[in-house]
Amino acid sequence: MGLAFKIAWRNIGRHKGKSLVIGMILFIGTLLMTVGNGMISGMEHGMSENIVKLFTGDLIVISDEQEKNDVLIGSMSAKPLKVIKNYEAAKAVLENEELIADYLPGTSGLVYVLNDRSEMGSMYLLGVDIDRYRRMFPDSIQITEGRPFEAGERGLLISEEIRKPFYDFVEYWLIPEGEELDESKLPEDAKADLANLDVRSDLVFMGASVANSTMDVRVPVTGVMKYKALNKIWGSYCLVDIESFREAHNYVTGADSAVDLSEAEADLLATENLEDLFAGGDLFADVITEESITLEELQQETARASGDYDLDDGSYNLAFIKLKKGVSPQAAAAKINGVFQEQGLAVRVISWKDAVGIIGNMAVMVKAALNLFIMFIFFVAMIIIMNTLSMAALERTSELGMMRAIGARKGFIRSMFVSETALLSFFFGGLGIISGIVVIYLLRAAGISTTNEILQLVYGGETLSPVYTGSDFLLGLFELGIVTFLSVLYPLRVVGRIVPLDAVVRE
């Protein structure tokens, strides 16, 4: 084998032109492969950091009655999500599951906004317990104006991405409660008509229940926010306190659980046939009173219960799950769904990619496109290297035939060609990998950013941050080895056909 390497090294020097052509092909191929693998790893890392850790978690719990899985970005329609009917039982499973690091129940959906000047507006809300949201996604949002609402407080954090289009539609500008108007934040058309600008600090959510039995809910704007990453995508959602969302959608609220019913009221609600209530007696009765009551007093009397109560006693339509480090989302989902089915619970777990719908599909397609591009580069490189080696073998027919004539076996001739290709692959391929790593770190240091949503998926965030890991290095060596092996197969067949008689054959 040592002799074959010595002869291979000599032949590389004697055929510098062809060796350089093969080497440059290997260099360019491995360079593009390394950068491509770095882009894919960067995208996967960025998607994990900017989607899983900042917005969705690893898995999403939804009702088993929910027809479609795209319950977040893909569900942006007026059709509400199905409510989780047996959340208490599902909660017990989530709390006892050792694979789960944390979870956040919430509500997601569309709400219409009352407007007395033009057509009603709309926005998508994520209703949460703000303290649990901060614990689950501590670095998710940045407050640019005002403040976040506190636990137990009614409040809305409106997204910067929503405030401008919302102004265009409903014709008033929202600012946080108690804050002064910052004219630098205004769009140009609002600045041009500043004297007539309608500035407000609260919204009235119109009842959004399909049963059409909800009451309007007034919610103060406590702050303006933006998401730390992928704000163009996640900015479609505004954060609101969970109770305001529930009231607007006629969900059971946590405050409802604090209402104590009298024995008569409990019996009334337990009546199976409501028609019996109207079977006899007068439906209306005269009531004469000298007492008077103001509208404010009436609102106070009819307001929902306040004070200490458990928010989990109210309704949810989804829950975000964050898994422990190193846990496979696929394995965790299978295990949790198995427990749900065993207990007969009408809930199921889906992946974050399914939950974000088209965004998750686009991420998969981008990754597949990058992988396909790398495969194409190496396929082309393999064909060129194969043809070049085959031509080199044919041009050296006399030389190789002479070696066969003096006793060299086919195996020795083949090992010599393999050694030549391996030396070229090791040197130029290794140089390509090193150069690719340098390019990756240069791209990362350049801090290239974009506001384009599609490019943000390629970047894995708003900034291009490719990474190169040990697994990428091993993958690169494997891919280089595969290309080298496949490239030399046909030339070895050509070499194997050379016989001693070819040593005296001349054109």
User: How many discrete domains?
Assistant: 2
Secondary structure: helix percent: 40-55%
Low-confidence stretches: 268-272, 298-306
Shape: elongated
Please state the CA-atom Rg, rounded to the nearest Å.
Answer: 34 Å
Q: Biggest sheet: strands side by side, in what order?
A: 2-3-10-5-9-8
Approximate strand percentage: 5-15%
Task: Give your account of this protein's structure.
- The protein has 507 residues and is α+β, with helices and mostly antiparallel strands.
- It has 2 domains: 195 residues, no CATH class; 186 residues, no CATH class.
- The chain is 49% helix and 14% strand.
- The chain contains 17 helices and 12 strands.
- The chain has a 6-stranded mixed β-barrel with strand order 2-3-10-5-9-8, surrounded by 4 helices. Strands 6-7 form a two-stranded parallel ribbon.
- Strand 2 and strand 3 form a beta hairpin.
- Helix 1 packs across helix 15, helix 2 runs antiparallel to helix 13 and helix 2 packs across helix 15.
- It is elongated.
Features:
alpha+beta; 17 helices; 2 domains; two-stranded parallel ribbon
Brief digest:
It is built from 17 helices and 12 strands. With 507 residues, it is an alpha+beta fold.
Draw up the topology in text.
Blueprint: H1 2-14, H2 16-56, E1 59-63, H3 87-96, E2 100-113, E3 121-128, H4 130-136, E4 141-146, E5 156-159, H5 160-170, E6 173-174, H6 188-192, E7 199-200, E8 202-206, E9 217-227, H7 231-234, E10 237-241, H8 242-248, H9 263-269, H10 295-302, E11 318-323, H11 329-342, E12 347-351, H12 352-355, H13 358-395, H14 397-405, H15 410-446, H16 453-459, H17 470-496
Parallel strand pairs: 3-10, 5-9, 6-7
Antiparallel strand pairs: 1-11, 1-12, 2-3, 2-8, 2-11, 4-9, 5-10, 8-9
Helix pairs in contact: 1-15, 2-13, 2-15, 2-17, 13-17, 15-17
